[in-house]
Amino acid sequence: MKLYSVIWITLLPSLCQLQLASEYVNLNNGGSQGKCTYTFVVPQQKITGAVCVSTARFPEAFGVNRSEVEELKQELSRQQTEIEKIKRLVDVDHEVANEMDHLRRESRNMGSRLSHLHVQFLHEVLQKKNDSKEVFQGEDKVVNAISEIPILASKYRDLQEKYNFLTSLVNNQSLIIARLEEQCQQSLGRRHVDQAPSYSQSTSGALSNSSEAKKKQNRDTHGEQTDGAAHRKEILPTQATKTTSKTPVIQSEASQSEGPWTDCSEAFLAGQKSSGIYLLKPHNSNQIMQAWCDQENNGGGWTVIQRRQDGSTNFFKTWHNYKHGFGNFDNEYWLGLENIYWLTKQGNYKLLILMDDWQGRQVNAEYDQFRVEPESDFYRLRLGQYRGTAGDSLSWHNDKQFSTLDKDRDSYSEGNCAHFQKGGWWYNMCAHSNLNGVWYRGGHYRSRYQDGVYWAEFRGGAYSLKKVSMLVKPNKP
Ligand SMILES: [Ca+2]
């Protein structure tokens, strides 16, 4: 390039400048020596034809003709073109280099992104492994639980067998107690017969010997209807005092009642206006029973068939107990399904239920018809229309049979409602009312089941009532 520049300078059209150019060349080559030397490096050219040289502009003296200059120009132009090409290539190269840089950077980013994804992938693989482990553990637990089911089932069967055994034991014991009571009464009866004259003398003259004997027999009959504890409570004092005085129960009887009456209403109409224990013998029944007659409240003449008031009597009893009755007539008791059957069979009876809560609220529920079917139909409940202030929690039990812990006659197919409710009742599925349930003190109670003495429409199933009584009376005495 430098060489061509030198040529360019020396071959400027204005030859008058040639001298200056030669001096420049000489200066570059150390021309301080004063010698003037010209050096031209031009491509060799073979001149074959006539060369037209303007003698005016390119004097022969310089030894450079016009065609050579043109050639140089062309060469120069070609070189310039080459230079431009090279420049463009360089530019392109530069762009390529930039592009390469950019790609390299991008590649680096991609690399780091790939590393990141790889780490993430590894992490997820580990996580999956852990999850699989948990799934396996869960499956193991399920398998273990399944394998325990037969064991639990067999335990349940064992418990059920034990329960059945205990139930039959309770039944047997109840029968034994009943038999012992019977024997006891027979022996008592023999003693009473021996002492009949003195007994007769001690009672009202209006009573004949035969009626006294009858009354004595009535007492004995009643004894069969009470449960063991209650019965012993009443019989033992009689034994102890038989030669001197009668039991309080008998005294109240003798002073009030010349019965037996068909029911308390008949006694009331006959002038017996004091509440107490009366002897009753319903029509067509050879059973003589005792019952508390309420002659002072709600018009009098009411026969109490059930009463709860202090939790003194256990109501979680067997069929035998519920059939014959249990408890104490002057306190808590159940008259007995057989007695209720004979009592309500006599006519058209109504039922009155009186309830007190622990805050002193008193409510009632009255049903204009009430009776129970015979034992062959498991004392099925027959109930009329409701009226009252407590709300109706018994109609749902209408037409249901009676169930106890040892006799499941309810509408609940999964078990015996009497087990859950801990009483005897005309259970459905299971109860809107449970007046023979567990007597809990204070009202609200905590229990696994709704087993309190409750009337759902009054205080709900989780509230055990303080006082409850069930009374019957004929609609048209
Ligand atoms: Ca059942």
Describe the structure.
The protein has 477 residues and is α+β, with helices and mostly antiparallel strands. The chain has 12 helices and 11 strands. It has helices at residues 2-10, 18-28, 66-194, 196-202, 209-223, 228-241, 248-256, 264-269, 319-324, 337-344, 417-421, 456-459; strands at residues 276-280, 289-294, 302-308, 326-327, 333-334, 349-356, 362-367, 370-372, 381-383, 386-388, 467-474. Strand 2 and strand 3 (302-308) form a beta hairpin. Helix 3 (66-194) packs antiparallel against helix 5. The chain starts with a helix and ends with a strand. Calcium ion (CA) is lined by residues 408, 410, 412-413, 415-416.
Structural class: alpha+beta
Number of helices: 12
What compounds sit in this structure?
A: calcium ion
Calculate the mean pLDDT score and round it. Answer: 78
| Major sheet summary line | 9 strands, antiparallel
- In percent, how much strand structure appears in the residues? 5-15%
Output the helix-strand order. Answer: HHHHHHHHEEEHEEHEEEEEHHE
> Could you say which overall geometry the principal axes of the C-alpha atoms support?
rod-shaped
> What is Rg?
63 Å
Low-confidence blocks of residues: 1-33, 192-256
Q: In angstroms, what separates the terminal alpha carbons?
A: 150 Å
Number of strands: 11
